[in-house]
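A.,

Following up on our hallway conversation. Structure tokens first:
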């Protein structure tokens, strides 16, 4: 019960890493607000948590819209009186050669992957600064730290998340707000499977991804949820402005 009675808002909680983290945090005693643009999937997350005795409230939020992020945090505070944990996790990928990336593609990636995190940090900090404490976790990627063909725009948005996280940590750590980035490697989620499906041979693409990981396997959403739990817990009280990589060793080669 490392997060007993903590109020945790998680974006992108309708699937993948977000859902696994919501379940993990709830199992550790948190009251979870599961935010996702897909209301139906967020409600499934709520049902999964409540089925095993946890506490969760689904909330529909488009993180690319600042007003919706601000409203989600305001609703959380109006109901529970505070916001202890903010996990800015929602993200998308668009996999194309750079010369084929359209302005609309770029706007969508920036809107969700960067602006969504920026808005989450901005309005969480506004609340947490009043509380004099709080924890923020921003989901970046191992591709914030290394390059990969066809991922130029995605790498750019995730690199921006890491840089912003470091700057915000330097700005707000003294005010009791602990901010870190989490950088997953290839994780077996619906988003990654959709990326494999774009290839001519999805099975070969999946195997190539596995072959690129020294550990010899894709990570699971639960693997990343456990790292997020560490960052959300008092065990990480001296971890500030870090980019924690969980990638099976992929960025070491």
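Then the amino acids I'd put at each of the 253 positions:
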């Amino acid at each position: 019960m490392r997060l007993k009675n903590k109020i945790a808002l998680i974006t992108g909680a309708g699937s993948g890493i977000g859902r696994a983290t919501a379940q993990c945090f709830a199992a550790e005693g948190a009251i979870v607000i599961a935010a996702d643009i897909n209301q139906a999937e967020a409600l499934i997350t709520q049902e999964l948590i409540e089925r095993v005795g946890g506490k969760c409230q689904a909330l529909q939020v488009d993180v690319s819209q600042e007003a919706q992020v601000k409203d989600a945090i305001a609703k959380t505070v109006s109901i529970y009186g505070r916001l202890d944990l903010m996990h800015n996790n929602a993200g998308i990928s668009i996999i194309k050669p750079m010369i084929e990336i359209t302005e609309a593609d770029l706007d969508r990636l920036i809107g969700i992957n960067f602006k969504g995190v920026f808005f989450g940090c901005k309005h969480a900090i506004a609340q947490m600064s009043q509380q004099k404490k709080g924890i923020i976790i921003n989901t970046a990627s191992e591709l914030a730290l290394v390059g990969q063909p066809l991922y130029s725009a995605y790498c750019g948005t995730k690199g921006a998340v890491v840089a912003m996280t470091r700057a915000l940590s330097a700005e707000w750590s003294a005010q009791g707000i602990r901010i870190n980035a989490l950088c997953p490697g290839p994780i077996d989620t619906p988003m990654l499977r959709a990326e494999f499906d774009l290839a001519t041979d999805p099975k070969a693409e999946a195997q190539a991804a596995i072959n690129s990981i020294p550990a010899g396997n894709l990570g699971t959403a639960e693997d990343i949820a456990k790292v997020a739990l560490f960052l959300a817990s008092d065990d990480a009280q001296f971890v500030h402005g870090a980019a924690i990589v969980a990638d099976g060793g992929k960025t070491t080669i």
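The beta strands are 7-11, 31-36, 55-60, 85-88, 134-139, 177-184, 243-246. Curious whether your intuition agrees with the design.

B.
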